[in-house]
Amino acid sequence: MFSLALKNIIYYKGRSLTTFFLTLLSTLLFVVYVAFMDGSHKSMLKNSLDIYTGSLQIMYKEYRENPSYDTILEGVKRVEKRLEGIAGIKAYSARLESYALLSTQEDSVGSMVTGINPQKESQISKLKEALHQGRYLEKSDTTAIYIGADLAQRLKVKIGDKIAFVGSSIDYSFSAENFEVVGVFKTGLFEFDASSAFVNKSYFDELMLSEDMASYIVVAVGDIEAVESIVSYIQTKMPQDIEVASWRVLMASMVQAMEVDSIFGYISLGLFFVVIFFVIMIYGFINISTRIKELGLLRALGLRSFDVTALLFLETALLALSSVIIGMVLGGYLAYYFELHPIIIEGMAETYKEYGIVSDAVPTRFDLWTICWNGAVVLVLNFLAIIYPIYYTRQFSPVEAMRHV
Hints:
Elements: H1 2-11, H2 13-53, E1 56-60, E2 73-74, H3 76-83, E3 89-103, E4 108-116, H4 118-121, E5 131-134, E6 144-148, H5 149-155, E7 162-168, E8 174-185, H6 190-195, E9 196-200, H7 201-208, E10 213-214, E11 216-221, H8 227-237, E12 242-246, H9 247-250, H10 252-289, H11 292-300, H12 305-340, E13 343-344, H13 348-352, E14 361-362, H14 368-385, H15 387-393, H16 398-403
């Protein structure tokens, strides 16, 4: 049966090549499209996490619902000590966030002022890489402030200018200080750049009476895919009143947005495959209907109806499997290549920076499992498309089939 199927494929080489290339192109487009879609989501997520959020955060249990001094994390050094030696953690650092009034002679703006450890923070976020003017914070800084470009524009300040800080310390008493602008950063996220400023936490703790306290501890992990298992393990190391939240919890709105985008992407692909399915089915119907006389002769020579059906399925399997495998290999190669060498579209970051895309690179995501199920979908479509043409041929008796014109 196999040799007969192979002979038929070779004999009807025009039809076979058309079916082969149609399936190959469908597989290739499917694999590459999904790779670019997943790659863009991963890139968007990585940009958002690297800019500020981090892979996971450790905080007091009620802090996410009620971020205030009443839910601040105490005993930071004790918590950080429990993080030492945990596999998968790349870096961690405590942050103290406080909303305050920043004023100059020109204007006053409410802003989030955050105390950070400059050295540790540079291993977690892109604040240092986002330097636009001046310099980044240093370990020895005291009254130095590092502010967003849009915030600097709103306050009409430049490097070396003074900014008056008025806020509330941990005991709810007033705290005030004059900070000197040493650096301006620009991440591309308008809201973040317009409302964020950073100071050295060691000095900020003196000003805010927050020694060994933090709003939360931000943690960066080596493998973002393994973050949930790391979160579970860290949680077992922490007291019951401390929560460990992954980026999926911290950025739930972005996760939902990416899921919705994926759904619409797959709906578009679904419409594409509906068209491909009917094209393959119609072409298969035309192909098989022209062979009714040949199939009737085979049945008259002694082949059962089941044998003829198996022959047609075998022909489809040989063509579909070969084309899908080649399509998967080519698509996988392109996905792998463009993951290592992303396509650069100049100016894209400027256009989409309000959505967190701060890079002109358009990467793909190479994932063997995704490529395999992409190919499996196309393979199943090929087998589904052959069902009706086979059903049509089975309506003819051997004599009717041999007389068919």
